[in-house]
Each structure stands twice: as C-alpha cells, then as structure tokens.
Amino acid sequence: MKRYIYILMCMVSLLAAQSCINDDFEFEQIESTGDYISLDISSLRLHTRAVIASEAKEEAVSHLDVLIFNKDGNKNVYTERIAVGNSSGTVNLSMRRSDYLEEGAEYFVYVIANSTLSENIFSELSSIAELHELKQYDERVHITGSSVKDAPTHFLMDGVAFLNSNGNATEPMKPTAVVLYDGNDKESTRLKVFLRRAAAKVVVRLNKGDNVDFVENAHIGYYLRNMPYSTAVIPFANPDEKPNPMLRTPDKITGEYFSWSENVIEITAYVYSHSWDVNRFFEEGTSLIVNIPLKFDGVEYENSYYQIALRPSHLLNFERNYQYTVTGTINAPGAEEVSVPIVVDELKYTVREWDEVNVDVNGENGPKYLTVNNNLLSMHNVAKDSLTLQFSSSSKISISVFDVYYINKFGIKTSDSHTGISGTTDGGVSGNITVRSPLPTNNTIRYFGLAIVNEEGLRDTVYVEQYPLIYITNQQGWYSYRDDFKKTAVAPTTYEYKGDGVINVSYTRTNKGTYQRPVYEYGYEYGTGTGSGFWRSKVATPLDNGMSDIYYYSWNNVRGDTPNTSSAERGGNARMYHVRVTSTSSYYNVGRPRMTVDGYTDPGADNAELVSPSFMIASRLGFINSSAGNISYANTDSLKVELYRNHCANYVEVYKDKAGNKVELKDWRLPTEAELKIIMDIQGTGNDAEAIDYLLNAAYYVSASGPVRNSKNSTTGTAGRCVRDAYEK
Hints:
Helices cover 7% and strands 40% of the residues.
C-alpha cells in the first residue's frame, strides 16, 4: 500500500501542548516552537477498517529511521531512530532545526520504516550513495508478520519527503531536495512522504479440478525455491545496475499464510526484488513447491508435489511494493518425491501495485477514500479488459472517458472517436473496472483517459494505451552521414564535426580487362565538395506540420562551426518509423532476421520470410539518388544488393531524444523481402495511411535477397530503404 506520513515542522505554542487522544490518533506531549520537526503518521487502524482487504500487519510501523542529507548528498546532517509502535500518532525529532540546518539550504529527507538493521548503521552512513548501497538480509522474509520464530515482525518501507505547503502536493518523479529551515523559528514548513514496501507480495490460488478431491493431512506444506531474501534498504539509484539478491530455499512450512479448503488452496508469500535470465529460471527463478495430498480415480496420494512458477513468462522479475497473483487448477496427482515436482501449466498471472491507498482520516462522517490499483493500463490486441484494474472507494463511482487520440505519421497528436470506449463496474464500492475499446484499425496506439469520481468528489485517473497487432510510432530525424566518410581524420565528417569534409559518395567502375573483354572492379569514391554523389549527407529542419525542410550540408571552404547548406527537399519527411509486429501471418514469420558473419542481412530464402518484431525504417535523410554518382553501374541484381547493403552498413542517422540529447543510430541493414512487403502493405497508396507515410514509391526496392516489386509504385526504377532492429535495452 502506498503508505504516507506527513512531516510537519509546525508552529505551536511555547507552552507545553496537552496530550490529545482519540480512537485513531495519539499525540505525544510536545514542548515546541516552529524550530522542531514533527512527523504525523496517518492512522493505520482507520485505514485497515476502510479497506477490508488490507492486512494490518502489512501496514504497521514499529519505528522510523529519519536521515537528513545535504543537497549534494555527500553529508549526513542528522539521523534519528523514532519508536512509533503500531498505533497512530505524532512523533517528534529531538533536534532543533537551527542547531543542525543552514538557513535557506536544501536537504534530502529519507525515511526508513521497520528496518532490522541497527540504529548505529544508519548514523554511520556519510552519504546518500552509501545509503543506496546499504543491504538488509531477512532469511524469513516470506513469512514477515507471522508468529514463526526469527521472522521479521514488520515490513521494511522507505520514502523521501517532498514539499506539501498546501496539503495537496503530488509526489515528484524522483527524490527532491527541500528547504527545511528558512530562519524563521515560528513559521512551519510542511512536508509529505509516501512509504513503499521493499518486498513484493505473492498470492497463489490453486483451485480443485473436477477429477480430484483435496485431502488434508500432516504432509501438506510448501516452500519457496530460490527465494530472494536480501534487499537494498532503498531502491537503487540506477535500476539497470541493481545486483541480484541472495537466494535460499527455506524449510517446508504450513502456518498462517497457508489457507486450505475443500475447493481452494491459497498461499501468501513475501519476497524481495529479483530479476533473472529467461534461460536460467531453474537456477535463479523463484517458484513455489507445494504438497497437496488428494484423491484421484479412487486412489489417495498423501504426497503430491507441484511446482508453480511465480511469474508470467514475459515478466522475469519481482518489483518492490508490487503484488503478483498466480491462479491455477489442480486436476491430476503431482509427484511423490519433492525433488521432481510436477510443473503446473496454464497458470494465470496478474500484477498490480500492492494496495496503494490514500485515506482522508479527518472526514467528519468517517473515512473518505478512492483508490485504483494502476494509473496506467496497456491493452495489447484486445478490445476488453476486465481483470487488470481494481478499485476501492468509500462510495459508488462514475467513470467518464476523455482525451482520446493517437499520434499520426507526422508526430502530431490527433483526436480520435470516443465511440465504443467505456469504463464500467458492477455498481459496488470495490471490485474490477471493465474497460472496453474497439481495436485500433489504423496501426497506431490509441491513447485515452478514464476519469474516476466517487460521490464524495474524490478523483483518480487511469491512462490507457491500446495496441493493435501491428503498430507504428515515429521519430523526427536530425541529420545523417556515413561512418566511412573519413580519410585521415580520426572520425567521420558529420553536421557537427568537419573532419576531412567528406560529404558524398559515388560508385566507381574500373576495367581490369580489355576493351573487347572487360573485367570490371567496383568500388567507391568519397567527395568533399558539393558534387553529386549517389548519396550525400543531409540535415533536417522540422516544420510545424510534422514535415521538414531537408538540406544537403558541406564543409568545403567553411571556417566556422556550422557547414554550408543547400536545399534538397522542401516539405519532405525526415521521420523514422518504428514498426512493431506481434503476430505471424500467411506470408511472413515473426523473428529477428539472421545476419551473416560480415554483418549483413542473410540473403537465404528462409530469412527472406522473416519480419523483425521491432524494426525502424530510415527516414528520407538516407535517400539514395538513383540518377547520380554512377549508380547506373550497379546494373545487375547482385550489384544492386551489394551497393545498398554497403550503404546501410555505413549509414548513420541522428536524432534528439525528449531531453534534447543526441542519439546516433548506426546498426542499419538491408530489409528482408517480407519486411519490404509489410511496409508496402501498411503504407497505403498515397496519403490514406494514418500511421506511416507513403515511403516506398519506386517500382522495385532492394532486399537482402534481391529486388522486390512494389505494387504501389508511382515511379520507375529501383530504390532502397535501410532498416534496423530496435529493441528495448
């Protein structure tokens, strides 16, 4: 659950405050001015009553470690452990702000709840970097909160405070330094922090099939294979570099997290974050081994072991503060030996944030709350989703659809129809939200929002992304060059680097035989002037309509930092298109095309039928002029393939990401025949396609296995487009 506490540096009377006790808050006596820091913890008991599905032990806080670091993160200014107990209330730091904090300076305030590490370990930390490296080991994390000896009594949680002057602040995307002391001892500064658990929750529900009967006996029990039991106390600064945790396989248990009935067995376990390679699941992946005695075909099996993989096949990790629910059916005996359990197939998985709920504890007529488990829903080739979104509310909710749009082929947000799009519930105050939306038919991702409002006026928002089988996004290109555009310089000539000034390439043919019996040798000549090669470096200037003015650039006789430019195409398209294909069809197979040892797309017949599941198409910045640079010398299919594959192998296209950083794409290749055909199919016949521009208009385009006829051509001749495999790193 997204737990929050308010940190209040509040101005109170110089007189001692009277203790104030009610059902949900217990305020300690405070002798305070605004120079003190106090932490106001939301009522856990009230929250538990409001959300019946929550477990108090999953929410309880026994103690807090508060760490204050300077803005640079290299100095631990103050650390204190505060006993809280399981009741709600206000606790106070013993420090005075003026004794430790500089006036007007910014600080990071880290709050750690329920750590099993000693207080001295936190006080000895000298920087935020050391805090990121701090580990906690809990060998019985899977039964946290249980009565089993040596099991952790509470869940490790963490959060970083942020400014909340008006009481309605939203949490920053990343930890933010805040001013804690402005020099005025009588004015309060209000902060807020969300506490999130370090563990993930796993719930396994095994239903009784028609052919078996569960038999409860002394042999029942379960254990976790490869259970992750170590964790970073706070999330890693760079998630991509996080090391995997320590793994162990604890003894078989039953206990309070093992629920048995005649029809359903439910097991709850807690694990620390963990990721593993798809090919090393047995060595590293976490699974549940459970013995379920049963009767099958009149025979009783007192030992019947099963193995349940605790993750979807496409999701090879556990994340902090997420809940993973696994559902399956037992309809045949398992293995008699625990070492060779029967793997349960056809499991269903759901993943959601672990009971993230905010509750207004100050309502006059009881708690008012509204929560949705996810604020982002991805629908992949489905028109209905009734399982992913779950809500809990203090009153009935209404759902409205807003801002339906897609991004068109020129990168422009384009409004789409609301028809057929809805969010509905069964009318209760908790349960699932069913989202319906017709599948997009224009090869774009459909985006829309769901505004969820309850009768008290509390609001939440879900943003939906709906993907068709084939969908396309696009990226504005900036400039292009070739990686072989250099002679003596250490790097090739680009729009930003003069180098040798090489900006074009021509095809060459030398006769090594006789006039009567020519034997030609083919090669390339690189030019520095504005002469017309078959390919020249280009740069794009984006226009407001998503198109671009495209220019040739050259460094010939240039002394400054910016090359000369000459017009190549007004109102052209300098956008790269990213095509994702999620299903095999009758004329292509989805799979990453094979490459030769030389780094070219393999020309084999089987490879020609492959379409990469995720590939990009180069923009017009990679356009080859089929009437210049002696390209006519490439007058056979094999010569055409050689010329175009050489171009793709050396081609570089550069763009700027959302942060304005330069990104170079160098791994281009010739497309397969099937990839060319799928581009031809989805590009339309002119301006009628919404996701991709009319890219291929020549009569033939060169694939790795030879030219491919284009049925949607508007000109003659043979041309080429480079592609690249584009996968998330």
